[in-house]
Fold:
Amino acid sequence: MNHIKPSRIPPLAALCVLFLLTAWTAGSLHAASADQTRRIVDSAQLFLDSLSKDERSKVMFDFNDSAQRKRWSNLPVNMAERRGLRMGDLKASQRDAAMKLLAASLSRMGYEKVVGIVESDEVLRKEASRNAPPFGRDEFFISFMGKPSVSEPWMIQFGGHHLALNITVAGPHGVLTPSLIAVQPARFTMDGKTVRPMGRETDKALELVKMLSEAQRKEAVLGSQMRDMVLGPGHDGETIQPEGVKTSSFTETQRRILIELISEWSGIIHDEAASAKLDEIRGNLNDTWFAWSGPMEAGKGYFRIQGPTVFIEYAPQRLGGDVTMHIHSMYRDPTNDYGKKFTTR
Structure:
């Protein structure tokens, strides 16, 4: 859909290999809370140390800057302004430091998913027409809200087209909501291998809806047409009435698949925060709802998971023709977006 100058950034797939070999070894997967937070803060400081004074002034925002907090979108960067530092404007060493910070803040699965989404946008750039919006690896932005600290709350924002990560760090707590996770193309080839950054979400959701009983399916399926997201960008603080089937009726197998599906979003953040979040979600499964709208085919149906502390939407998009190749999704916590449980005093 567009063309920009060839990226000067080394392929993020190569960066993925480098960081996955270093970031999750030496027993770091299950570090204590203080150690995990320190690791993130240290990685953030290394990135800041790589910047010039002018670059620092562009990447740093006040923690209470409400305009910057909400300055994220699914749209290309020429349609929705991002502030901070553009990845394409950074030196290779600075980009490396930024990616190492993401590796420290996310789980292995989460980092791989983010790299896949960025790489999919690079595919889109290469296939786009000259007058299309700017896509690609260069067009992602990073910013901080607040000063990196092991005790005081601060945020990392990283995103661009089809990606918006809002990572709140508040002492031992890590929060990923709200975050927008999307992809186009949803399937592409890289280094001779098929890559599906959101493939597990697509497959597990179809598996779940197909294993519902006839009675459960009558409640879960809202209609035969796809829907678009209801609580996407620009809808902070809003709620909707739960619809679908209440998962208190689920069998143990259905619950297991549901938890695996939820984990594709809740598990993007580093393992320790992800584990705590999933425990919280499990505790509310009897008050959680699952809804589906559209064809019961892989990647062709909208679905929603809604509980006291989790809200997930998955919405295939018609733009581009093949709805299975263009996916939008949203991950929220109505009680804790932007980590407000841990930052409100």
About this structure: The chain is about 35% helix and 20% strand. The mean pLDDT is 90.
